[in-house]
Amino acid sequence: MTSKVIPVLPFDMVIFGSTGDLSQRKLLPALFRRDASGQMPEQARIIGLSRLDYNQEQFREFALNALNKFIPAAELKPEIVERFLNRLHHLHNDVTKPDGWDGLRDLLNEYPDRIRMYYLSVGPSLFGTIAQGLAHVGLNGPNDRLVVEKPLGHDLASAQKLNHEITTAFNEQRIYRIDHYLGKETVQNLMALRFANALFEPLWNASAVDHVQITAAETIGVGTRGGYYDTSGAMRDMVQNHLIQLLCLMAMEAPYAFNADAVRDEKLKVLRSLRPIKGQEVQRNTVRAQYLARGEDPSYVEEAGNPDSHTETYVAIKAEIDNWRWAGVPFYLRTGKRLRSRLTEIVVTFKEPAHSVFPNTPLQCNKLIIRLQPDEGLQLNIMTKDPGPGGFRLRTTTLDMTYAEGLGPDWRMPDAYERLLMDVVRGDQTLFMRGDEVEAAWRWIDPILNAWEDSNIAPSTYESGSEGPIAALELMARDGRRWREMVV
Ligand code: BG6
To answer: pTM of whole model > 0.85?
Structure first.
């Protein structure tokens, strides 16, 4: 089965920081794949901007290397590679110099009616400068779209400042804040599961659900990103954005329509209903930890090159949502690096039946497991009769639906950036975060980060390759619950 491809309108995409890591690993490969699928119009151009003195040929060579590195050879058909490379242009530009914008404006004005997308793959300290530079030469009109990605602030105050800087240059309707989790096919499937089926929605509330677990576990450590990571930590790197977005999609009310503001209004209501975790409650309802060395693998503090670092590589939180639907239903979040398995999943544990007619057989609660990666799919654990004679015994049976099954052997799960970049061209902001959402997430996270910092207590530790620190087990055990085992 091949997916349906609807070509987008002609566009020019400008990548600021075009010779950086994101451009190489994600943006250029995603654009190539959209080109190969036939979604890119013939006229589309990709304009790289960097401080390097590259000429066109050098930039094309850089892009070719990126494709060779990040796309399997079988996908690299020579005629498509050539077509793609011909779309590439490069401009040398120091964005901090106010007179450096004319070349870009002149190049773009060769086709004044096109959609223009400006992808800021540079440090956030340059977001305001670039947005204002573009506005200064009139590149902030109805067809101009600004794309930014985390870190969108370090705390609430800096996020507000950043929002202010970019929104004074670009209208909110033209700003696309990427959280790549929202571009994942399976994350969108969560909305399909909830709002395109009648089955689960009546049970999606406090009268049927006991608790929800959201896990994003990775096996890799911070590797060469230690410098960035040590100023960030798992809370800012994963919880403030990806995990909170998953929580919002799980917990939100049905939007009145599947459009950008309707969906984002509902997510915002969830964020505003999150019960603040402050002061003493932080010790009780959150866990932060760092991984230790194992065998050849160094510990976090060694990788970060900072023996005194208190930066967390693991976070667990018990979150509560104070609204009618979810009152009394905890949402347990956890994420970490160098854990036992790489998996992202959401587990909805339903309540026990109101009364058991099988007094001698313990009943297991039903669980709906939404696996986002790997082996994307759904599992539903239900109680069934153990087949055969010899008494009436019960057992747990799993109904298993693998997402890719039935899509055929050629089906490839598209990378999040493929979807998101084309959505920018289409002008669809549904899968992008609005400024008020980002600020609301920081508003909830800030007191936790502050309490950690004020306490001056070092994070707990955990063995690399384990399921995380003991303290996280205790967080659940106190409520008489357990994390689902990290098995893939
Ligand atoms: C990124 C984080 O946003 O998400 C990384 O900065 C993390 O630290 C990554 O590894 C995880 O994304 P994925 O798509 O591999 O689950």
So the answer is: yes
